[in-house]
Design a protein that fits this description.
By secondary structure, this protein is mostly beta strands. It has one helix spanning 11-22; strands spanning 26-28, 33-34, 39-40, 43-45, 50-51, 56-58, 60-62, 67-68, 73-75, 78-80, 84-85, 90-92, 95-97. Helix content is 12%, strand content 34%. The strands form three sheets. The chain has a five-stranded parallel beta sheet, with helices on one face. The longest helix has 12 residues, at 11-22.
């Protein structure tokens, strides 16, 4: 098998691996709802995720079903499951996961 391998034993390792794979790009699933005024930098936006008006997402993963409210900021963070960042909230260097 050819290719690279990376340990992702912690949530930070997971985020680092995703950001390396994205290589300063962004991937937005076709089913995600991203408001036209949202600013998306390097990020993985999953299936059914929702990004509100004027929200900022950078160097982050917003996984399937997660949501970022209007005027919220998500930077260097991971949202898994149905996690919600409320309107106006600022999330930096955090991991949030729903069971």
């Amino acid at each position: 098998m050819a290719g690279s391998w990376r340990e992702v034993g912690t949530p930070q390792d997971y985020l680092d691996a995703v950001l390396i794979r994205l290589d300063r790009d962004r991937v937005v699933d076709a089913t995600a709802e991203v408001h036209p005024t949202a600013a998306i930098g390097t990020a993985l936006i999953g299936r059914g995720a929702r990004i509100g008006a004027r929200a900022v997402v950078g160097a982050s993963v917003v996984a399937e079903g997660a949501a970022v409210g209007e005027d919220a900021q998500v930077l260097r963070s991971v949202l898994l499951g149905g996690e919600v960042v409320e309107a106006g909230e600022r999330l930096v260097d955090e991991i949030r996961a729903s069971s």
